[in-house]
Amino acid sequence: MSSTAPGHSSKRPTGGLSRRLFLRSTALAGGGFLLGYALPARAATLTGAAAPLPRAGEFALTPWVRVTPDNAVTIIVSQAEIGQGISTTLPAILADELGADWDAVKLETAPFAPAYRNPAREWMFTGNSESVESFHDQMRKMGAAAREMLVNAAAARWGVAADSCKTIKGSVVHVASARRAIFGELAADAAKLPVPASPRIKPDSELTLIGRPLPRVDIGEKSDGTARFGIDTRIPGMLAAAVRTAPTLGGKLRSVDPASVSGMPGVRAVVPLEKGAAVVADTYWQARTALKKLALEFEPGTDLDLSSASLRAQYRHALENGPWATPVNAGDAATALNAAARTVAADFENPFLAHATMEPMNCTASVTSDRCEIWAPTQGQELAFVTLKATLGLNDDQVQVNRSPYVGGGFGRRLLPDFVVQAALISKAAGRPVKVIWDREEDIRRDWYRPATMVRMTAGLDKTGRPIGVTARVVSPTILHPVFPLIEKVLREQGIDPSALEGMMESIYDLPNRRVDFHLFKTSVPTSVMRTTGYGPNVFAIESFIDELAHAAGLDPYRYRRRLLSKNPRVLRLLDRAAALAGWGKPLPKGHGRGLAVTEAFGSFIAQVVEAVVSADEVRVLRVTSVVDCGRVLDPGIAKSNIECGVIFGLSYCKSEITFDKGAVVQGNFDGYELPYLAETPELVTEFITSGEKLGGIGETGPVPVAPALANAIFAATGRRLRAMPLARHGLRLGLVRPPKGKGYA
Amino acid sequence: MPKLKVNGKLLDVDADPETPLLWIVREQLGLTGTKFGCGIARCGACTLHVDGSPVRSCSFPLSQAVGREITTIEGLSENRSHALQQAWIAEQVPQCGYCQSGMLMTAVALLRERPRPTDEEIDFAMTNLCRCGTYPRIRRAIKRASGQVFHA
After folding, report:
1. In this structure, is residue B47 part of a structural domain?
2. Distance between start and end Cα atoms, chain A
């Protein structure tokens, strides 16, 4: 089978089907009759990587739109498609404003270039659930600018006023004279015009794509095996490499003996690395086979006593002793606590977690002494770019970072440049282009983990049970520093990591006296961003604790939250809707319980109800109801899938954890680090409320309330309060939603 | 040189007989739709068919595949016409998409055995991992392809 190197787009079948073929294939499937729709005969598709500059025959209308005279309209996709659907939504915003024929648009993934930076951060990356929020206005503006350039070119050609022309489905039209020109005819003239600085933005009423559920542009290729992920990259002369690094976190390479694998089939080179070594061979399997025979010795490092127990003791010591930074000090929490009728306190623990993207870390690199080009499934093109330049001592024009069109999961892991730099060093040492693939063990043991945290919550209640003062003490390692090194100064001088404080800085509730203390925990465990970042661990503590306060006050947790939200109608509306949808208060069989959590996360708001049943050691999660306000919904289908699949991701935070023993990570694969299965997936009920407020993120919002809502449901079902996750810490596990019959299930 | 029958074609393969079938199809035959996920037959991203049965090819040696019919995602249909591919598109199943070839191949084998599977049968058969959590749409797509969900 031929393959195409990134940088050269190839046209793919669009999945159009004749009715005859459609019926025949349906009949073959075993008798079922299918009513449904296929993708349209033409559909926008992500065809590959964009060239850094327009190719011959392509005319650029802003950095975002390229048009050829034969009317191929290409929109550049700045953001990594990691499954969240961004390669559909952002280009659709631009195409809508431009008046392009969406079904005929080609999409290409952006190279690293300043034009494709997140305009709010001036940094090119995909993360923090902020792509829509940060790029929406930019996409509108760029679409409008390209539209005005085409319209101006047509108006000049026809000798008519520009404001008497408009764009419809890929053409400029002068209605009065019924003249029409396709974009391709106008592209050469339009590209010579200046890019308008303040183009007119269409009123929303003229939009035809946004607000509707569009077929995702990546679905076809992901249903027939043709989608090209990083691991599928092929470039001429490429070799493959397998790597093994020291089992202990602080370990380094002591020695490697290349003779131990010389003469093995396909082996071309052995490359020593700081923490391990790589075998480079003709094929990956040859490299991996040789790696298993490679004579490697490691320096174990100094932190050999590191274990989950020792870490917990260190966290506990920090929780008791600080020192503390105090990022929130509103009112006078200490006085309020002293004046309280009673106080309630509880400590909460969140585990270390691994990203475990289905596509393991991999990168293809072609590096010589004066040039570095890489092809990577990355979320962090700019950090990869600057790190490669610094590591290799190269200039801007000597480094090119290409992102693979598809990325097999991100969840924050791929913001880090470690696997990219490693591939570059291996290629340089081997003197050949090399594709480096981490096996699953390397992927899990060389992760930058979602950090464990400890949180102590304390509240003073008045006689009615209302909190008059609340304090939180958060012990967390850094989250942000590895992906945003510029935060170093804030960490050092203020002792604060903004990501680790997400969810703590403001409260949705009416809490007049509130203080948050933060201890930046130093550890040799690498930690960084993972889907939900600080929101996940902090909201677990907050929303579990609010449930405890309701219990202490003798009030229903929903009614209790309502009281605290009386001044927040936006969130109250969500809470009420979620409670109604979930049948809050309706009787449940014995062993069943409902739990609630509500929060702000990533600029959106979410209320969630989990219904679960507990029997013996099994927790079966039957139903999760989510109601979300992200301002407005740009694509209802994609938004819903982000929330619902996010709920399942949230369950993974309750199922497994990363533990440590003798200085090393214990888990190495999906046998020890188990992810939820289809059979453990609850019924999902999801609704959006359109408040019309500022756009918020949805990629990471769904998982945030899951752990506290589940813990609260387990409390409702059993009276057992889970102040730590995952379930296994309490002798519990996720059970099948539909257990096999006749085995004594409730 | 051993010959391997893949997607209806006889192909020469030059590799150690212990090489997992996954790496044969990906590296020797260039059929990269079949994915590497775990290497221990836990995640199912590498699922393909050997004589019509789903096999986790990361743990299935070349030596056992010789002389048998191998089908990968690329051989499932032309133009995404298989009922399950159509259902995958209609239900907009994939997110990141990395696990979906394996999911589809597992689902195809399920429908061959159980043309109208119950929820419990879907639970039992679909043990592949999806980190994005597309499971609810996978279930719906299987039901759609087997005529159990009707939509305009």
Report:
1. yes
2. 53
Closest to A539 in 3D by CA, of A597, A477, A460: A597
If one counts every other C-beta atom within 10 angstroms of the C-beta of residue A3, the result is 12
Interface probe for A, chosen from B74, B86, B99 (most Cβ of A below 10 Å), is B86
Three-point CA angle A444, B96, A410, nearest 5°: 40
Domain that holds residue B99: 83-145
pLDDT for B150: 62
From A699, which residue of chain B is nearest by alpha-carbon distance?
B132
Residue of B nearest to A649 (CA): B133
Does residue A574 share a domain with residue A466? yes
| Shortest Cα distance, chain B CAs vs residue A361, angstroms | 10
Q: Measure the CA–CA gap between A163 and A172, rounded to whole angstroms.
A: 11
Q: What is the CATH number of the domain that holds B50?
A: 3.10.20.30
Mutate to test the interface with A, among B62, B128, B131 (most CBs of A within 10 A): B131
Check residue A18 and give its pLDDT.
Answer: 33
Residues of B in contact with A283 (CB under 8 A): 15, 23, 27-28
pLDDT value, residue A737: 96
Taking CA atoms, A59 is separated from A146, A402, A604, in Å, by 11, 21, 39
Say if residue A63 is preceded by a cis peptide, omega within 30 of 0.
Answer: no
Q: Do B134 and A34 touch (CB under 8 A)?
A: no
- Asked if B1 contacts B12 with a C-beta cutoff of 8 angstroms, the reply is yes
User: pLDDT at position A740, please?
Assistant: 76
- The answer as to whether A741 is a domain residue is no
Q: Are residues A287 and A336 in the same domain?
A: no
Question: Which parts of chain B register pLDDT below 50?
Answer: 152
pTM metric for this prediction: 0.94
Residues A346 and A411 placed together within one structural domain of the fold: no
Residues of A in contact with B11 (CB under 8 A): none
Residues of A in contact with B98 (CB under 8 A): 229, 357-359, 406, 408-409
What pLDDT score was predicted for residue A42?
A: 64
Q: B99 and B58 share a domain?
A: no
Complex ipTM > 0.90: yes
- pLDDT < 70: residue spans in chain A: 1-42, 742-746
- Residue positions counted in chain A: 746
How many other CB atoms sit within 10 Å of the CB of residue A379?
25
Chain A residues in contact with B73 (beta carbon < 8 A): 224-225
How many CB pairs (< 8 A) connect A and B?
253
- Say whether B81 and A358 touch across the interface (CB within 8 A): no
- Report d(CA B1, CA B85) in Å as an integer: 35
Query: How far is residue A375's CA from residue A405's CA, in Å, rounded to a whole number?
Result: 10
- Shared-domain flag, residues B89 and B71: no
**Does A32 contact B147 at a Cβ distance shorter than 8 Å?**
yes
- What is the rounded distance in angstroms from the CA atom of residue A187 to the CA atom of residue A171? 11
Spatial distance between the Cα atoms of A737 and A679, rounded to a whole number of angstroms? 6
Contacts of A265 in chain B (CB under 8 A): 16
pLDDT for A23: 33
Q: B96, A358: Cβ pair inside 8 Å? A: yes
Does residue B151 lie in a domain region?
no
Domain end: A390, A416, A437, which one?
Answer: A437
Residue A162, domain CATH: 3.30.365.10
C-alpha to C-alpha distance for A462 and B97, rounded to whole angstroms: 52
| Contacting residues for A141 by C-beta, under 8 A, at least 6 apart | A97, A199, A201
pLDDT score for B151 = 55
Domain coverage including residue A535: 309-351+450-734
- d(CA A219, nearest CA chain B) in Å: 6
- Cα dihedral A637, A641, A642, A648 in deg (nearest 10): 170
From chain B, pick out residues whose CB is under 8 angstroms from the CB of A641: 92, 95, 134, 137
Nearest by CB to A22, which of B81, B97, B129? B81
